[in-house]
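Hello Y.,

Per our agreement to keep a running log of every chain we model this quarter, I'm adding this entry. I've kept the format consistent with earlier entries: sequence first, then predicted structure.
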Amino acid sequence: MTDVPLAVLDLAPVAAGTSAGAALRHTTELARRTEELGFGRFWVAEHHNMPAIASSAPAVLIAHLAAHTRTIRLGSGGVMLPNHAPLVVAEQFGTLTALHPGRIDLGIGRAPGTDQMTALALRRTRQGLSAEDFPRELADLMNYFTGTDPGPIVATPGRGDLPAVWLLGSSGFSAQLAGLLGLPFSFAHHFSAANTLPALALYRQHFRPSEWLSEPYAMVAVNVVCAETDERAEWLAGPAGLSFLKLRAGRPEPLVSPEEAAAYPYTDLEREFVRERRRGQAMGSPETVYRQLTQLQERTGADEMMLTTMVYDIADRVRSFELVAERFGLSGGAGRG
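Predicted structure for the entry above:
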């Protein structure tokens, strides 16, 4: 898969004993380094009411990252449309596009990315929070950018300042919609591996050429932890597995150290949950990760792969991407190390 572009998804993970400010500074450091390494895009994801994740305001963070990088594409993976009025999203990403033309992606999701109480606090009304409202709100958003159906409200910036729009998904709904609208589609394999192949099949089956794309373009997001050895990668992955376990149990916490994760008294059921979470992802030495990512790309036919790495220490996070870049022969991949 040497010709398949590689991209980065970052959640600005908050390590225990540190702050959200430190997490955001580390994300900035990672964006700069992955640009040097030759990765093509760097996306940040919208999450709320999660102590382990600081990327709650993608548009603000993207503006900061754009000011500290030069060429890498920056975007949202994604903006959760049910949380926002379409006009606000159009103005925010229209502003980003006007300031940084040709560099901004707007990945849009239909889930709130949080619990219902927090979603209601964000939206301040239940209107628009249903999945059934998503196609209409997406159409409103696109119209603010394109002005295809002019109305009394003009998004400025927004109209004429169109970012590259993607639909994101972890099931078949957004896959079909992305296909019908002729938009690129990014699938969240990193937390919905069982649905990857069915969703991509639906996307390609329903694809209609559009002014945006003449043929389907699918990206697959995958968890990656790369280290010098398989054993060290497994060690570094411990905190993310425990964090997800606690999140699913309704007890979200900042990312603990690998030592604390290894000492956690897992039940047999909890260990199986973490093992299942890692299935289908890429974890190990550069050779192991290369083999796993190549196999995943061959199974999915992905046109692009987006890698997300959730480890405790920023040095290990940066090193993981350096090792991947070197093994895949990215420009800059033989640099620092």
